[in-house]
Design a protein that fits this description.
Layout: H1 2-19, H2 21-34, H3 36-39, H4 46-60, H5 63-68, H6 73-94, H7 100-111, H8 117-124, H9 129-155, H10 163-187, H11 189-217, H12 219-224, H13 226-249, H14 256-267, H15 271-281, H16 284-292, H17 294-307
Helix pairs in contact: 1-11, 2-11, 2-17, 4-10, 4-11, 6-7, 6-9, 6-13, 7-16, 8-9, 8-14, 9-10, 9-14, 13-14, 13-17, 15-16
């Protein structure tokens, strides 16, 4: 009986953590600014934490079962075309008057595949989690092709990048966790089923830690360039609002749970992947902007959680 009560209490506690996720995300951003020296040594393991998060999210979902839910492939093709091609192109033209580096960073952010936390937050918001998982999987699968393609089309005259290296990095970061999760699930399915309730909390903890490390990397720059940083953050908020609304109303005929799934999968883009790509293939200023996007990235999903009740 005592074990049963303890189990119930732990489940209630974990449920509270899930529903107040925004507190932990904002706390992680603050910790990144407050303890930069303590967190910066963990920079080199961020990529592996991201792969672990991907592993956990795909572990929770039986990819074979998720695929069975794809009844209308035409809708999926439309969603992927909207989120991975159309929205980045719209952002490219809407922000044409702004600084070229800021514009390029916004295009990179808009071109990223769905982030792994999107499924967790869609679940918390009572959206269609399976649809989010489908979008995560397929946007992840096509990202090695769509990201280089977009930058070749939009920046072919002024943009130089090692597309082969970019493709290889995307494959390593995104595909390996997917394959590993399904192999692990095949051998340890009973353990996975018993542990499902705790995976969201573990993902949130890992994600919060990566946010702390990422924010610590540019904390000195941000604090020493307050005015410029505030301008960039303001522009990022504008872009994120546009991305959120375009992805939500871009599938206006679907049920609300589906629209929440699509919107979450886009606004909760894989920003850690974006940071890794920005640091590896872009100039430092673009990397700084992508890192600063962590702030609206974490707060916009919290705001959306509040105002989605007023959306059709």
């Amino acid at each position: 009986m005592d074990n049963y009560k303890l189990c119930c209490l732990s489940m209630k506690f974990l449920a509270k953590i899930d529903h107040h996720f925004w507190v932990y995300l904002l706390g992680a951003v603050s910790c990144g600014f407050l303890f930069p020296r303590q967190l910066q040594p963990f920079e080199n393991i961020v990529i592996y934490i991201m792969m672990a998060i991907l592993f956990l999210v795909f572990l929770k979902a039986d990819v074979a079962d998720v695929f069975k839910q794809i009844k209308k492939p035409g809708i999926l093709v439309y969603i992927l075309s909207l989120t991975m091609i159309a929205i980045p192109v719209v952002i490219f033209y809407l922000f044409k008057p702004v600084d070229p580096d800021l514009r390029m960073a916004l295009v990179l952010l808009a071109a990223l595949p769905a982030g792994v936390p999107a499924a967790v937050f869609t679940d918390i918001m009572d959206g269609h989690t399976s649809l989010t998982l489908i979008i995560i999987f397929f946007s992840t699968l096509i990202a090695p092709f769509t990201i280089p393609f977009l930058f070749w089309i939009l920046y072919h005259a002024t943009f130089s990048v090692d597309f082969v290296s970019l493709f290889k990095n995307l494959l390593m970061i995104l595909i390996i966790p997917l394959v590993a999760s399904q192999i692990f699930r095949a051998f340890f399915e009973p353990f996975v089923e018993k542990s499902k309730f705790y995976i969201n909390t573990l993902v949130l903890a890992c994600f919060s830690f990566t946010i702390m490390v990422i924010m610590s990397l540019e904390s000195e720059y941000v604090l020493s360039h307050i005015r410029e940083s505030l301008y960039i953050i303001g522009m990022l908020y504008g872009a994120f609002i546009m991305i959120q609304l375009m992805s939500y109303f871009g599938v206006y005929w679907l049920k609300k749970g589906d629209k929440v799934a699509v919107s979450n999968s886009k606004v909760m883009m894989n920003n850690i992947l974006g940071i890794i790509l920005a640091l590896a293939f872009f100039e430092e200023k673009i990397a700084v902007i992508v890192i600063l996007a962590t702030i609206p990235f974490n707060t916009m999903i919290s705001v959306f959680h509040w105002y989605k009740r007023y959306l059709p």
